[in-house]
Give the backbone structure.
Amino acid sequence: MIWLIGNRGMLGTELSRMLDARGLSWVGTDREVDITDPSALDRFIESHAHSRGGAASKIDWIVNCAAYTAVDRAEDDADTCRRLNADGPENIASCAKKHRARLIHVSTDYVFNGNGVKPYTESDPTDPTGVYGLTKRDGETRALAANDATYIVRTAWLYGKHGPNFVYTMLRLMKQNGKASVVNDQRGTPTWSRDLSETLIAFIDAAEKGKAAPYGIYHYAGEGDISWFDFACAIRDQAAELSLLRAPCAVTPCTSAEFPAKVRRPPYSVLDKTKIAKTLGIRIPDWRESLRAFLEEERPESMRKLTNILVTGGAGFIGCNFIHVLLQKTPSFAGRVVNLDALTYAGNASSLADVESQFGGKRYFFEHGDITDRARVEEVFKKYDIDTVIHFAAESHVDRSILGPEAFIKTNVMGTFTLLDVARNFWKAADGSLRTDVLFHHISTDEVYGSLGDTGYFTETTPYDPRSPYSASKASSDHLAFAYHHTYGLPVTLSNCSNNYGPYHFPEKLIPLMILNILAGKPLPVYGDGKNIRDWLFVEDHNTAVWAIVNKGKSGEKYNIGGENEWTNIDLLQRLIDIVAEKAKLDPAKVRETITYVKDRPGHDRRYAIDCSKLKRELGWKQSVSFEEGLERTVDWYLANTEWVKGVQSGDYKNWLDKNYSSRA
């Protein structure tokens, strides 16, 4: 088994996906295991030194991608930088030696001073000039001293899909400004995180085949020798060829002196890769080849613009989380988000206060309006030149649909119709045909499929069998969306998701309701026998899936999004009690005494479970948050955001809870 440390960074995320693709057994950690604490490392590795399900899970390899990489900030935060970049690698190396695991530690070209005139070899003396480079050099030295079964892999100019980097920065500047000024007096070689990941795995493959490479220091980067200016010009030219850039862009050279920084950047960062190529027998791709492959993966399906995105229901639970993900955690997105929300009982504009503060009036715009109001929807389309719709807005609480179905028909059916029809008319080309650079993505639910027995899963071809006014209204909207695709040619994609949970969830829903009732000492109402089963999906994972579909999903296709994580309601409640009681210092036994079984609701589906293999196979998505981690993060969020909770625990919300649950006691 491989332990991947730093699995959520740019390189770690890329490597984790490649390990999955190769079918290699691995476990990943990020900040949840403190690499500056030797005992924390020991506890983690010892927890895997036993058999699980009959198969040995001992950790044989550790790959350390974790690092403090903010070069300038390190000058003012030297202690933290040293603990992560020097103490951490030494601790990891010592842990690996103690438990007889091999270590691969990723390092940097910054260990050199950058004054060279020919590619640096592994035997060249190091002479770093800043805190970052010094601590990375010390991390190498101390790791090798602590464990001779260590590989050090230095790299340079790294870029990839899963984090901020030079390529994304250039694309954003070129799209927004039509120009970029880039230094021409620093030379190196760009390195795609995919290529580096393949090379790290090559060390493991060689050892597993009985041809282990000698331990020590190796260099890996793309093949070539260019300046940042050359790189920027290539990004512009290749992106234009792939229609990722639609307008001319001027790239002009400048000097490093025009961009003063606390730490001098290395004028020369070219690494000699002869040793690693010969030792592992690998081909090192030219940097242009890798850049092309990277940019081709950025190419949206049907050349979608994805520039002015209308998010309906963006003040609701899933919608507001999507906007957070898109604007704060998706560096490849450089467009604008328009949030159209009626602010009904579940809509809370304060959930996006941080987004408003950071992006309001520039890349984020809130429009108050009802999706059933055609004139208002047309106004928003025209005002912002909408080219993409991501339709979250919906009435979604099953119990509310039983007590008052009319609102569900109005919003979920008529509202969806209004959006589809406005989009169809607005996106007509001059010749009357529909544009192909636009997209309408419709968010739906697994409840449209009905109820499962003890086995089986919902697939994209499962017949619809809705059992409540809510699910019937969503099924109707799904059929409308595809009808507009097949009848009018409207570019449409659709996703059906399982139960979401996470921050900003309105307190009438199961998980937040139970968290808050536990904290308040209130009864914990459970429907029927509590054995209804749901597939739980962390909301951020849902939204990364939505973004993958919007970028790469095929028009006219639907994709199931699931957590692959089934829990009975009562088992989920028991786990929540344990987590909340521990964090709030409550007696779990006393909390359990407040569990109250109430009369089951009409038409309560017994089991939902999603098969999301199509999404994984075709678009490369997978869940990133385990259920245990997701529950912990959700409970922590509600504990830390009491003011948000207080803001929604009033008026209609309180009346609804009393009306719904008191009548079932």
